[in-house]
Amino acid sequence: MELVAALLLLIQRQILNGGMSHRRAETLYPLNAEHRTRDISGNGLPAGIASGVTLDKGPDGREGGAYYFSGTSSSYIEIPYHAKIDTREYYMESARVRFLFTSCAVSKNERIRLAAVAFDSRSFRGRMACLQIYNEALTLKQIRKSSGLCSEELIRPCINYTPIEDVTRAFNQTWYRLKGQQQISTQGPQSNLGLSGWMRGPHPQREIGAVERDLCFGDVRGSCQHKASVTVRHCFGYYVYKFIGLPQEHLQISVDKDVDAETLPERIFQERPRFQLTDHVFYEESNVPSPAQCVEYCLVAGEKCESLNYSSKDNGTCQLNNATASGYGHHLLANQSWAYFHPIALV
Ligand SMILES: *[C@@H]1O[C@H](CO)[C@@H](O)[C@H](O)[C@H]1NC(C)=O
Ligand SMILES: *[C@@H]1O[C@H](CO)[C@@H](O)[C@H](O)[C@H]1NC(C)=O
Ligand SMILES: *[C@@H]1O[C@H](CO)[C@@H](O)[C@H](O)[C@H]1NC(C)=O
Ligand SMILES: *[C@@H]1O[C@H](CO)[C@@H](O)[C@H](O)[C@H]1NC(C)=O
């Protein structure tokens, strides 16, 4: 029995003793090649322990965008106990996916096991991505909003980065853009100037999104004596980087002049006020102050973003669409509070 791929799994927790006050995502496991089974919520949750699962195509068709569970009792991801996800009473709601979810209580330490039930033979076969756990039930609107959280990395790093002059002063888990059109060297140091960091593997194409690479520290060209990890994203005209496991003592990191930098956006958008394209939204964000910023999001998202809706009401809502109205004229609705933007030219 093949089950559908999961775009979004929203697990909602029923609050038993009304004393809980948290009101936001407690955990955010993208379950993809970039983050593997790590939590990126910032709450410091333990990584999931994967057993008998493989990376597979995600909901957007990209390789490495989800995990595949084979439908046997030994194919699962288990999230170790953490106080933030006390699992006594969970239930799950999702129209798009059926899957089995269990929390096995082992004395006080409760783990969550995805896709296989520990004590009987039920199991889930299919793909799963983007696990979010909340400590309250979400409204439909909140569910729609949070469906972008795992793909947020597609856009946000290119907008919300910290410019940095001296990359040796970088910290873990912050997106940086190197000043002065620099990029991290993929070659390793030319001369023997002590341990110097370099990135193993090429810079990615923009369409690929963020990728994780080894950040090697070695004193000879090409050697990788000590390793950290760097996630790199190609944006328009620059790269952004995020580090994990940087050495405490600030080692050097080699940089090169970025020679391939693109400077021009590839598309120019024309506004069609009072219309919105329905049914093709793949990303939505509120509190986006201007249509220009929404267009920037669309450019950053790459080819997948074919047009966008922007409404200035409610502090600004930006919706990226995976189609243009030209193929779907009947989905273009008149609406006073929205404007539809579509590309008119390739530059
Ligand atoms: C980065 O994280 C590692 C642990 O993963 C830690 O040992 C190191 O001190 C951190 N580096 C910086 C610069 O904060
Ligand atoms: C476009 O997005 C809609 C709504 O999210 C989805 O149902 C549809 O499958 C997507 N189409 C493509 C070609 O990705
Ligand atoms: C609009 O922004 C203000 C200030 O940041 C915030 O308090 C308010 O909740 C926002 N409104 C909506 C609808 O998001
Ligand atoms: C126009 O958009 C607003 C905001 O999204 C929505 O509340 C309203 O129902 C829409 N109106 C029509 C006629 O679709």
TrEMBL record:
Question: InterPro entries from the entry?
Answer: Pan_app
Keyword Signal recorded = yes
- Give yes or no: UniProt keyword Protease: no
As given in the record, the signal peptide range reads 1-18
Q: Which controlled-vocabulary keywords does the entry list? A: Signal
Q: For the Apple domain, which residue ranges apply? A: 264-345
Q: Which domain of life is it from?
A: Eukaryota
Q: What is this protein called?
A: Apple domain-containing protein
